[in-house]
Design a protein that fits this description.
Radius of gyration of chain A: 48 Å
Structural class of chain A: mainly alpha
Number of helices of chain A: 5
CATH topology of the largest domain in chain B: Arc Repressor Mutant, subunit A
Distance between the termini of chain B: 52 Å
CATH class of the largest domain in chain B: Mainly Alpha
Oligomer: heterodimer
Helix content of chain B: 55-70%
Strand content of chain A: under 5%
Number of helices of chain B: 8
Number of strands of chain A: 0
Number of domains of chain B: 2
Largest interface: A-B, 24 and 43 residues
Distance between the termini of chain A: 107 Å
Largest sheet of chain B: none
Helix content of chain A: 25-40%
Order of helices and strands of chain A: HHHHH
Radius of gyration of chain B: 18 Å
Structural class of chain B: mainly alpha
Strand content of chain B: under 5%
Shape of chain B: elongated
Order of helices and strands of chain B: HHHHHHHH
């Protein structure tokens, strides 16, 4: 059987016609997802700088909240026993230690003045303690 | 892609996509489903179309081709998609309608040959456009088209004028008598 030539084949192929798309064929439309579906499968576009900044903020917040606390180590002084207590002010001197530093005459005068005048005026004869020696306990490096 | 552009694309190319799917599958309902799926793909992923790489029509036909082949693989998963073992059988010229015989001959081709014949002969795409649509090299497309036409020549030979006195008359009248 002799095969067809190009022209005969083309003529035959043109005989096979396809129908047009039916009128009932509707244009597709993507259904709008519900809010719940959108929360699970929705996508949003975030500019890269904004996304990087947000990630950095979250990372810094997490590090600040749960990261290790910064501790300043205090080196122990081998010559002294270690006491970590930090005293910001010198301990108040007992009353009996202060009293002998004021001369008895001044004390009498002060007593008189105290009885006649308000207490704020009693500082006239005040003299600071001369032999006050503050102690620094512990060394902060 | 705006909604107006999408509507315009649908009106312009729905027939082309439908005809291609109908010729590939022979099923009107499958062809309708394919058209819907092709344009849904365009609606959801319009960025996949690059005008620099070809026309919108060839892009849509490429999507349709992929959908048809996926369906074919699902239904004939044990059959070869290629054409190495294909043996063309001449049509029975005594069975009647010429158009139907030609259609059956084309649809009996292996899928990879069938698609290039339909895209080249019926949708009139260039070899480059077909190559983009079927994701192959131009040389491969040319080779497949050549083999497909050779197979069709043999299958449709009983309808030729050299083999039947009624051949030319049959072609001109569209029926075999």
């Amino acid at each position: 059987m002799e095969p067809l030539n190009d022209n005969e084949l083309n003529q035959l192929l043109r005989r096979w016609e396809a129908p047009e798309a039916p009128q009932s064929l509707q244009i597709p439309s993507s259904p709008k997802p519900s809010l719940w579906q959108w929360l699970w499968s929705g996508r949003i576009q975030v500019p890269v700088p904004l996304g990087v900044l947000a990630c950095a903020c979250v990372a810094a917040l997490l590090l600040f909240s749960f990261g290790p606390k910064s501790v300043i180590p205090i080196a122990p002084d081998p010559a002294r026993p270690v006491d970590n207590t930090i005293q910001l002010a010198p301990p108040a001197a007992p009353k009996q230690d202060v009293t002998p530093m004021i001369a008895p005459q001044q004390q009498v005068q002060r007593t008189r003045e105290t009885s006649s005048r308000p207490e704020s005026a009693a500082l006239a004869g005040f003299r600071p303690v001369s032999q006050f020696e503050p102690k620094v306990i512990g060394v902060v490096k | 892609m705006t909604e107006a552009e999408f509507h315009k694309a649908f009106e312009q190319h729905k027939n082309s996509v439908y005809r291609f799917a109908w010729r590939m599958t022979g099923s009107p309902s499958t062809a309708e489903d394919t058209v819907q799926d092709v344009f849904l793909t365009l609606l959801r992923l319009p960025q996949r179309f690059d005008p620099m790489r070809g026309s919108l029509r060839s892009f849509l036909l490429g999507i349709a081709r992929n959908l048809v082949l996926k369906r074919w693989r699902d239904e004939h998963r044990w059959e070869e998609l290629g054409d190495e073992l294909f043996v063309p059988q001449p049509v029975d010229a005594a069975t009647g309608d010429l158009a139907r015989l030609v259609g059956e001959a084309v649809q009996s081709l292996p899928p990879l040959q069938r698609e290039v014949v339909i895209l080249a002969e019926y949708e009139e795409l260039s070899l480059e456009e077909i190559a983009r649509a079927v994701e192959s090299e131009v040389g491969t497309v040319k080779s497949r088209l050549h083999r497909a036409r050779e197979n069709l020549r043999r299958m449709l030979a009983p309808l030729g004028p050299a083999n039947t006195q009624k051949g030319l008359r049959s072609i001109s009248h569209g029926t075999i008598k």
